[in-house]
Amino acid sequence: PLRATEASAEATLARAEATARTQEANARRNAELVKIDAISRQAYDESQAAAAQARADVGVARANLETARINLRYSRIEAPIAGRISLSSVTPGALVTANQANALTTIVQMDPMYVDFTQSSTELVQLKRDWEAGRYQKVDGNQMRVRIRLDDGSDYPHEGRLQFAGVIVNDTTGTVTLRAVVPNPDGVLMPGMYVQALLPTGLASDALLIPQQSVNRDLTGRASVLVVNTDNVVEKRPVELARALGNRWLVDSGLQPGERLVVDGFQRIKPGDKVAPQVVDLNTKKGPAAAAPAPAASAPSAAGQSVDITARPGASR
């Protein structure tokens, strides 16, 4: 019935347009004839009115055709987005009604994907203080890249971009929600997955990073390290630590670039001892110190390089 109504509206419009053409031609002829008094003024006025009425009939017919086409489109349900469909709650031939509560199905846009994650409001406040103190350089939010780590510990190959950071703190969890837009051309990411989002919040130039195993703490919790000086003598040095970055500490004060830290052999040495240090590769955890009968092992601190200060929230959706 809706297709028949559309066809009828098309035919009515065609008839109205044909009538309008005839009336327009008649009005033009009468306009020339009235100039030479070949017809009466009344006949001229009637032809002009008939042409105007025909134009109005064309407008009404077009509106009726558009209404018929709208109603016909309502008879077919189309999705405004491309994506993947989930389970369907109805089958062809089932009764559905307008504005029903239950959805027919759910369509999910797979590429790109939204990754929502949270960050503690306490961390955000501390980060702002670090920015104001000049400890870190602020990263432009529009250029903030987001790396994704899957729940099996592997890194997702495509980087995303931070779309927005929320401004309302959840009064239950004390966190702020952030959202990243991540490309998903291979369909690896799926709705409802839990992943880790890693994003830079600040840049620290000339940052000092030291291995966590090189740090000792006393009963009051104060941190210190053992440093091998230029005379190969062990010294105890108190340090101020900012935060943990992976398996390393970011040092605020207490060390200088290029100093050597003891990372192994603590049971055999004490401050003031003279040692024969051997360099250890912290990536492979192998080196001469593993076989050499040296009283201590040391490794140069990572210094003099630009280090991304990366926030690693917990598992986030």
List keywords for this structure.
elongated; 317 residues; 3 helices; alpha+beta; conserved putative lor/sdh protein from methanococcus maripaludis s2 fold; six-stranded mixed β-sheet; single chain; Elongation Factor Tu (Ef-tu), domain 3
Short characterization:
By secondary structure, this protein is α+β, with helices and mostly antiparallel strands. The protein folds into 3 domains: 2-74, Orthogonal Bundle (Helix Hairpins); 113-203, Elongation Factor Tu (Ef-tu), domain 3 (Beta Barrel), CATH 2.40.30.170; 205-305, conserved putative lor/sdh protein from methanococcus maripaludis s2 fold, CATH 2.40.420.20. Helix content is 25%, strand content 30%.
Folded structure, characterized:
The protein is α+β, with helices and mostly antiparallel strands. It folds into 3 domains: 2-74, Helix hairpin bin (Helix Hairpins), CATH 1.10.287; 113-203, Efflux pump adaptor protein, beta barrel domain (Elongation Factor Tu (Ef-tu), domain 3), CATH 2.40.30.170; 205-305, conserved putative lor/sdh protein from methanococcus maripaludis s2 fold, CATH 2.40.420. The protein is 25% helix and 30% strand. The chain contains 3 helices and 17 strands. Strands 3, 4, 5, 6, 7, 8, 12, 13 and 17 form a 9-stranded antiparallel sheet that branches. Helix 1 (2-33) runs antiparallel to helix 2 (41-74). The protein is elongated. Residues 287-317 have low confidence and may be disordered.
